[in-house]
Each structure stands twice: as structure tokens, then as C-alpha cells.
Amino acid sequence: MRTSVAPDLIFDMLRSLSIPGQDPGTVLPRETSMVKLTATETARRVALDAMQMMGGYGYATEYDMERLVRATVVSTVYGGTSEIQREIIGKTYGL
Ligand SMILES: Cc1cc2nc3c(=O)[nH]c(=O)nc-3n(C[C@H](O)[C@H](O)[C@H](O)COP(=O)(O)OP(=O)(O)OC[C@H]3O[C@@H](n4cnc5c(N)ncnc54)[C@H](O)[C@@H]3O)c2cc1C
Asked: With 0-12 CB in 10 A as exposed, 13-18 as middle and 19+ as buried, what is 35?
């Protein structure tokens, strides 16, 4: 369920970008932030759940899981943190 939300949002955004007559240079801050926030937070939660399932192996540097956890956790920081994405989304609703 969780993992199906991010692709749906991305497809919706791509669909809205390809409206005939719409300027392809149109900036969509709300949709962009929603996609970045949902995709990275989903990846982080899924990686942490997977690490938990693997027990000690999930944390050991000998296995890929540890690298995936680090990569997904930091993805909620670079390119604009999750907190900032929420700020942007809120601002587009006038909050
Ligand atoms: C691996 C990696 C690669 C990077 N690559 C690049 C790159 O290629 N180019 C580039 O320019 N930068 C890059 N960065 C920098 C990255 O964009 C910043 O780390 C990120 O924007 C957060 O800024 P900061 O580290 O200064 O944290 P800060 O802005 O100091 O934020 C610290 C914490 O406070 C929160 N916070 C800050 N302001 C608010 C607010 N108004 N409301 C609520 N919470 C807030 C943040 O969400 C965060 O949790 C990279 C960072 C990493 C870790």
C-alpha cells in the first residue's frame, strides 16, 4: 500500500505536465514537493522496516541493507528536507 502511493503521485504529476497547450516550463511546487516528500519518506520507512526484518544482518556493514538505510535516510535531507517540503506544500495552500 505504502509503496504504491509514490508512483501514483509521480504519474499524476507527469500527466498534469503533459496537458496540451500547457507551458512545459510551468513550475509545479506543490506537486514537486509532494512527490519528493512521499517518495523519499516511503523509501526511508520501507528500508527501515526491511532492516528490522533482517535483524542484525540488516545493520551489519557486510550486507547491502545498511547502505540502503543510509541512502534512503539521507534522501529525506538532500534536495530539500522533508520539513521544507511540508513548508512548501503548506504555503501553496496559503498556510
Ligand atoms: C549527501 C548529501 C548530498 C548533498 N548534495 C548537495 C548538492 O549537490 N548541492 C547542494 O546545493 N546541496 C547539497 N546538499 C546539502 C543539502 O541540500 C542540505 O543538507 C539540505 O538542504 C539541508 O540543509 P542543512 O544541512 O543546512 O540543514 P538545516 O537547514 O540547518 O536544517 C536542519 C534541520 O532543521 C530543519 N529546518 C530548517 N529550516 C526549517 C524550517 N523553516 N521549518 C522546519 N524545519 C526546518 C531541517 O528540515 C533539518 O531537519 C547535500 C547534502 C547531503 C547530506
From this structure: buried
Point out the ligand 1 atom lying closest to the alpha carbon of residue 79: 17
Q: Is the pLDDT of residue 67 over 80?
A: yes
CATH classification for the domain delimited by 2-92, as one of 1.20.1250.20, 1.20.140.10, 2.60.40.10, 1.10.238.10: 1.20.140.10
Grid coordinates belonging to 37:
516528500
- The verdict on the CB of residue 80 being under 6 Å from ligand 1 is yes
The confidence score (pLDDT) of residue 17 equals 67
What is the CA(73)–ligand 1 centre distance, in A?
Answer: 13
What's the residue count for the chain?
Answer: 95
Of the given ranges (15-19, 36-40, 44-48, 91-95), which has the lowest mean pLDDT? 15-19
